[in-house]
Specification:
The complex is a heterodimer. Chain A is of the alpha+beta class. Chain A is built from 2 helices and 3 strands, in the order H-H-E-E-E. Chain A has a 3-stranded antiparallel β-sheet with strand order 1-2-3. In chain A, helix 1 (about 10-55) packs antiparallel against helix 2 (about 60-75). Chain A is rod-shaped, with a radius of gyration of 24 Å. Chain B is rod-shaped and about 85 Å long. Chain B has 4 helices and 3 strands; from the N terminus they run H-H-H-H-E-E-E. Chain B is an alpha+beta fold. The chains are: A alpha+beta, B alpha+beta. The interface between A and B is medium-sized, with 35 and 34 residues.
């Protein structure tokens, strides 16, 4: 005859083990993928923004194109915005200059209550790219 | 009567699944770290190849002139790549960075290689991986 106290133990074990092991694991996976998405967005955005800038006909449209390139890369990964900074040494779109693009964004950890506001734990991801503007190209500054 | 050893069979099974899932997460994190490193090296190789395209000043321009494609001085191109890598501080960003410049008069090919320590160790997988990226450039003459 079967012992009475064994009935239903598998269900109990599955339940507490799932809570103990699988729930944290799923949370870690979601957090990792959020950060990963933001990293992919940042590296792609920095790269395409740099390229878009050095191919532009003048500095103003170069900045607009770089910003548009960042927006495309960021939206492609389902994110809202990213902070972009563009700087040129010695000056933008002059022969022999280098443009420095930095893109960064702050990733909030998933499922945190909105009441935490800006104090919510978050991870910062960033990417930088330096693109040379050829020495023998036309001055477009 | 049921055999005694059968009690609690569900727990090892679940823990086994958990370990497998954990290993898969480790592999996914490692793969994305390698992919990010690859993207970084790709961008660096792109920029270095563009910088190398500056190496058109050289004897061949004065002796052969500028045709449809400007001829590249291999040594000058190598110098530009080294200068670009130094200026970007890439050696600090990618420890162990090595690069190879294959320059002919027609085009420059830059290959960047850097080792990567995988963030999560997975049993049976080597902890260090080598990531490399290649980019090429050539100079078209237009007015």
């Amino acid at each position: 005859m079967r012992r009475r106290d064994e009935e239903g133990t598998a269900l109990v074990e599955v339940t507490w083990l799932a809570v103990l092991l699988l729930v944290p694991l799923v949370y870690v996976v979601l957090a990792v993928y959020d950060v990963q998405r933001a990293s992919f967005a940042a590296t792609t955005a920095a790269r395409s923004a740099g390229r878009a800038f050095v191919l532009a006909p003048d500095v103003v449209s170069g900045q607009a194109r770089a910003r548009a390139a960042v927006q495309v890369a960021v939206r492609d990964q389902g994110l809202e915005t990213a902070t972009t900074s563009l700087s040129c040494q010695p000056s933008c779109l002059t022969p022999g200059s280098v443009v420095d693009v930095r893109v960064s964004s702050q990733v909030r950890l998933p499922f945190l209550p909105a009441v935490l506001g800006d104090q919510a734990p978050s991870i910062r991801v960033s990417a930088a790219q330096r693109v040379p503007y050829g020495s023998f190209r036309q001055d477009r500054s | 009567m049921r055999a005694r050893g059968e009690a609690g069979q569900a727990a090892p099974l679940l823990i086994g699944f958990f370990v497998v899932a954990l290993l898969m997460v480790g592999v996914a994190v490692d793969a994305s770290a390698a992919y990010l490193r690859r993207q970084g090296l790709d961008s660096l190789a792109d920029a270095a190849a563009l910088a190398a395209a500056n190496g058109i000043q050289g004897e061949q321009v004065y002796s052969a002139g500028l045709g449809e494609r400007a001829l590249i001085d291999a040594d000058v191109a190598r110098g530009y790549v080294a200068e670009h890598v130094w200026a970007t501080g890439a050696a600090a960003t990618y420890p162990g960075l090595r690069w190879r410049v294959d320059a002919t008069e027609q085009r420059v090919v830059v290959e960047m290689t850097a080792p990567l320590n995988l963030p999560i160790g997975v049993p049976g997988v080597d902890r260090t991986a080598v990531v490399s990226a290649t980019a090429a450039s050539y100079v078209l003459v237009s007015d």
